[in-house]
From TrEMBL:
Protein name, per record: SP_1767 family glycosyltransferase
Annotated source species: Flavobacterium aureirubrum
Domain Glycosyltransferase GT-D fold stretches: 50-273
Top-rank lineage group of the source organism: Bacteria
NCBIfam families according to UniProt: glyco_access_1 (TIGR03728)
InterPro entries per the UniProt record, alphabetical: GT-D
């Protein structure tokens, strides 16, 4: 009996949200988001930190699991805090998909059309009305786009400006290996790495934050830790560090260099979206010397 009542309740709730989302879409009531390249330019000019939110972070806020991060109540609360924050030196970023899909290929456009139809109410609920957000898909500069030449070229030029001639500290999951085996960071001054758990990194969050602050002085911090990165970039920005939730940028760059037309495994790198989670240990001396701490 209880199960029947629960199913009926969930069905009614789903219908209500479908109606609300159609209403919001029809009247174009959605968060304001700066486009990808404009977002990057402002971040460069103002030396802002970046916290990014996508469907995975929203899933956690709504009480669900997200890929390699299990649901965590504290993480949910922190994500809501960041998403509703209005810190001047932090670019809170959400997908630029609410009004224009012209840059996306057909597959990605259909995907985001479904996502908006299901979740627009929640995007409105957890964001600040009339606040200008930045595009969290700035790091997704290749695979989902129709233009796989000029748009990626411009994105890469802007990203490289972020770390040009700077010392960078990479905080990443074990096996992520940002920039390993490619020239993405060839124009930076130096690279150091803190390795964190590849999955459920938030379970070690306090240690990650303390350790990052210990080694972060005068460095640009690049974070690839799933939903944990959104919170970490926020906390670091409040500590007067510049921290970028860099997400899947390196994997997108690998696909770009391959000319890949679908998401696929990349040798020596953890790629959750291609179900490639087991990677071999690296013996490369240059890479190993960059690792200054392991959690």
């Amino acid at each position: 009996m209880i199960n029947l009542i629960t199913r009926i309740y969930n069905k009614v709730l789903k219908i209500i949200f479908q109606f609300l989302n159609r209403f919001l879409i029809y009247f174009k009531i959605h968060p304001k988001v700066l486009d990808s390249h404009a977002s990057l330019q402002v971040i460069i000019d103002k030396k802002m930190s970046v916290s990014r939110f996508g469907n995975g972070e929203l899933d956690i806020i709504l009480g669900q699991h997200e890929g390699f991060q299990k649901y965590d109540k504290r993480l949910k609360e922190r994500l809501v805090e960041v998403l509703k924050s209005d810190t001047k030196n932090l670019a809170v970023s959400i997908p630029d998909v609410f009004h224009d899909h012209s840059r996306l290929n057909d597959r990605a456009s259909k995907y985001w059309t479904r996502q908006v139809a299901h979740y627009l109410y929640h995007w409105n609920k957890f964001t600040i009305k009339d606040k200008l957000y930045y595009d969290s898909l700035m790091t997704r500069f290749y695979m989902d786009l129709s233009d796989k030449v000029e748009f990626p070229k411009k994105s890469l030029q802007l990203f490289k400006m972020l770390w040009n001639d700077r010392d960078i500290l990479i905080v990443e999951g074990k096996g992520t290996r940002l920039g390993y085996g490619n020239d993405l960071f060839d124009n930076c001054k130096s690279i150091e790495r803190i390795l964190c758990p590849a999955e459920n990194a938030f379970s070690r969050y306090d240690e990650i934050l303390v350790t990052t602050k210990k080694y972060a002085a005068d460095k640009l911090i690049l974070i690839a830790l799933g939903a944990t990165a959104s919170v970490l970039a926020y906390d670091l920005s409040n500590g007067n560090f510049q921290a970028i939730d860099i997400g899947h940028l390196d994997i997108e760059y690998e696909w770009y260099k391959m000319g890949a037309t679908k998401k696929q495994a990349v040798p020596n790198k953890y790629v959750d979206e291609a179900n490639h989670r087991k990677v071999e240990e690296l013996l490369d001396e240059t890479y190993l010397k960059q690792i200054i701490f392991k959690l």
